[in-house]
Amino acid sequence: MASQPIQNSGSLSSATTTQKHAKFAALADRAGNFMLNYWAHVVTVSLGCIVFAAIAVPFLSYLGLDSIAKPVFFSLHYVCAQIPSHSFYVFGHQLGLCARNFSIYTSMFLGSLAFVMSKKRLPGIPWWLWIIMMLPMAWDGTTQMFGLRESDWILRLITGTLFGLGNVWFALPLMHKSIIETTPVPPQFTQQRLPMRVNSR
Amino acid sequence: MSDDQSSRPQVTFYTKAGCHLCEDARDMLDELAAEVPYDLTELDIRSDMALFEQYRYRIPVIIVNETTTVEGRIQYSDLANALHAV
After folding, report:
1. Whose CA is closest to A84, among B19, B66, B69?
2. Do A84 and B20 touch (CB under 8 A)?
3. A100 φψ region: left (φ > 0), alpha (ψ -120 to 50), beta (else)
4. Contacting residues for A79 by C-beta, under 8 A, at least 6 apart
5. pLDDT above 60 for A78
6. What is the rounded CA–CA span in Å between residue A66 and residue A58?
7. ipTM higher than threshold 0.90
């Protein structure tokens, strides 16, 4: 008799654990479904945030809001070297990203925005065109890195834009295609089999 | 001026208010002052039009003894090497 309440509490705790597991599974399922439907939106918003932060830095500095501008500027160092002589300036203040990275992220943001606005119908480019679009930046960056020549802001802007556009134009439609091909069709869209009616005389 | 003071590295620091990299470089200079004593001349490039034109897209610029220059996104090790080399 004395062991009965203990057994009850054990089954109670296991029921609670199962309930928690089920809740977690449901949450993970919803998060997975959200990402399946809105992954391109998430990519676009993330890129937009980087571009917006980079543009916001000089404006914040100009307005005297250095306490906000400084952490934003230094957090962007994770994605950019921020070399002053390679950067754009607004109101005499350096943008959060260098010219090349700014053009890369902006073109990627605009490209992914166009992809989202087209309801993911924008056709992708073949792999060889993607390579061709990357080559100018590879040439510009490599020759500068080895001290063979010095690039300028126009070249950084053009080659960075080609690189960024090429990336999203190639990758996003390809990702969309592979998601469509691997996602199982929801049960409500599958054809239901009706029971066969047999006429017997 | 004593011999000790005259042998100190002469550091010229070109900066500008609102320059985030300059604030970072200034902190490094302060930290290194404990290791290598130096004489610092800090110049706001906006005080001179010629300086402004020369350094506006390069600051922070630190010149040690008018020979070694470290600029832009300055690494602590580069600045320490420049000061220790004197």
Report:
1. B19
2. no
3. alpha
4. A50, A97, A101, A105
5. yes
6. 9
7. no
Kindly identify which residue of chain A lies nearest to residue B46, measuring between CA atoms. Answer: A92
Write phi, then psi, for B30 (nearest 5 degrees).
-60, -40
| Minimum CA–CA partner of B23 in chain A | A70
For residue A101 the two structure tokens come to 């990275």
pTM, two decimal places: 0.80
Chain B residues close to A61, C-beta within 8 Å: 18, 20
Confidence of residue A4 (pLDDT cuts 50, 70, 90): low
Q: Does A93 touch chain B (CB under 8 A)?
A: yes
Q: Provide the residue ranges of all domains of chain A, joining segments of one domain with +.
A: 17-181
DSSP, residue by residue, A61-96: HHTT-HHHHHHHHHHGGGT----GGGEEEETTEEEE
Name the token pair of A105: 């992220």
Q: Give pLDDT tens digits for B5-37.
A: 668 899 999 999 889 999 999 999 999 999 999
User: Is residue B10 exposed (0-12), middle (13-18) or buried (19+ Cβ within 10 Å)?
Assistant: middle
Q: What is the CATH number of domain B3-84?
A: 3.40.30.10
